[in-house]
Amino acid sequence: MFRTLRGVMKLEISGYGYEKLLNDMNENSISCFNVKSEKENLYLEIYKKNLSMIKNICEKHNLEIKLLSQKGIIFRILRYSKRYGIIAGILLFLVISFFLSNIVLKIDINGNENVSDEKIIDFLKRNGIDYWSFIPEIDMDNMGRKLYIEFDEISWATVRNSGGILIVDIREGTDKPYMVPINQKCNVISDKDAQIVKIKVYSGTPVVAEGDGVAKGDVLISGIVTDKFGKSQAVRADGEITARYTEEVCFYQPLESVSLTECGKIENKSFSLWGKKLYRKNNIPEDKMIKTVSRTKDFSIFGIKLPMGISTDTYYLYEYKEMIDTPIYAEEKCIEKIKDYEEIFYSDKIIYNKEVIKENDSKGVKIRVIYTIDSKIGVKQNIIV
Q1: Is there a contact between 11 and 45 (Cβ–Cβ < 8 Å)?
Q2: How far is Cα 43 from Cα 36, in angstroms, rounded to an integer?
Q3: Average of per-residue pLDDT across 98-121
Q4: What percent helix, strand, coil does the chain show, rounded to 5?
Q5: d(Cα 283, Cα 127) in Å, to the nearest integer?
Q6: Main-chain phi, psi angles of 154, to 5 degrees
């Protein structure tokens, strides 16, 4: 099998002294096989690559050489070597196939119901991914995380490709059903010092009414109910209680601070072959803190991944910087902190009133915010019976 792949030629050597031929072949490490002699003729088989050397040796010793037969794939290829149209057609086909396997020809989106295809495709375009984009340049893992962050409806997302088809798989979140053990006996107690705004009882006995003030730990809905015959029993109290309460939060921004800030990035792109990166590295500063992100995207053809591709090493550079802010700029930073806090902790609550108190000193800006909040209160407390 291996000999056939390399190309085997059967020769007839005529003349006196072909022993010298065999000696020279041995000295030059020329392989031969199926050697036999008949009268003044020597018959042997050699590899195609050794033919020119044997011709030189035969000429040296005045021997005649004659090709009897040849076999192997290499000869079939050479038979078509001058048919340039066929070769050009095959090469063109491979080039086009390789090209079409590594660019985005189609975008398939699966699993989305609340987020439309148009929104997802628009988001991909804003992040540099569109039809005819070069697939090995796409950071698919990072794009999946960006989709998850961008859309609240998405709980999981991944981006992959199959040939020239970019596939976006999405899983949207669903609200968990409210499930409680049916045999749990409990009261609903207040977890805030508050004033009741609205109360709705599903089970149990209400202890407070709208407008009542309650302290933390007071019972709002009792798990003890009494029927019309005066018989009492413990049940699982449940309901919705909306109350109004106040919270004070302090925000502080010093005028002088030291922060770790990104000061640039260096990107090394390389050709990867069987996991080995072939590139010349850029100089990485030694006085900077570095975060390295590496990714490799292999080429493919006909949906089959090839052991080669493009590797990208991104070096994010950080350094500590001493920041000196003006009181006005420090106050703006405090206001940004307040907005972030409200988005995180009060997004599902109603801010009924907000009192802002500024307290500046020589070292920084302090803002106290007193919130009046309308929100649901109440936690379960087991009844031991």
Answers
A1: yes
A2: 5
A3: 84
A4: 25, 50, 30
A5: 28
A6: -90, 125
Place of tokens 């030694």: 286
Instruction: State the pLDDT at residue 367.
Output: 93
Question: 357 vs 61, 334, 346, 365, 374, CA distance in Å?
Answer: 110, 12, 19, 11, 21
β 165-172/106-110 pair status: parallel
- Locate tokens 């599903």: which residue? 202
Within 13 Å and on the Cβ side, how many CA atoms surround 313?
16
**How much is the pLDDT for 115?**
87
Sort 219 into a burial class: Cβ within 10 Å, 0-12 / 13-18 / 19+.
Answer: buried
State what percent of residues in the chain have pLDDT above 70.
Answer: 86
Pick the CATH number of 106-172 from 3.40.50.620, 3.20.190.10, 3.10.20.340, 3.10.20.310: 3.10.20.310
pTM greater than the 0.70 cutoff? no
Label residue 50 left, alpha or beta by phi (over 0 means left) and psi (-120 to 50 means alpha). Answer: alpha
Asked if 288 and 331 count as a contact pair (C-beta separation under 8 A), the reply is no
One DSSP character per residue, 331-360 reads HHHHHHHHHHHHHHHSTTSEEEEEEEEEEE
| Residues 188-234 pLDDT 10s | 999 999 999 999 999 999 999 999 999 999 999 998 998 888 888 88
pLDDT at 210: 93
Helices (runs of H) and strands (runs of E) counted in the chain = 8, 22
| Matching CATH number, 2-78, of 3.30.559.10, 3.30.70.260, 3.40.50.10540, 3.20.20.70 | 3.30.70.260
Encoded amino acid at 182, one letter: I
CA distances, 10 to each of 44, 57, 61, 70 (Å): 6, 16, 20, 6
Two structure tokens written together for 313 = 């090493």
Tell me what the mean pLDDT of segment 367-384 comes to.
91
Is 243 exposed, middle or buried, given 0-12, 13-18 or 19+ CB atoms closer than 10 A? buried
User: In sequence order, which residues have a C-beta less than 8 Å from that of residue 150 and are 6 or more positions away?
Assistant: 123
DSSP structural state of residue 212: -
Compute the distance between CA of residue 43 and CA of residue 22 in angstroms, rounded to an integer: 11
- pLDDT tens by residue, 60-90: 888 888 888 888 776 666 665 556 666 677 7
- What are the structure tokens assigned to 149, written together? 């962050």
In this predicted structure, the answer to whether residue 317 has a pLDDT above a threshold of 70 is yes
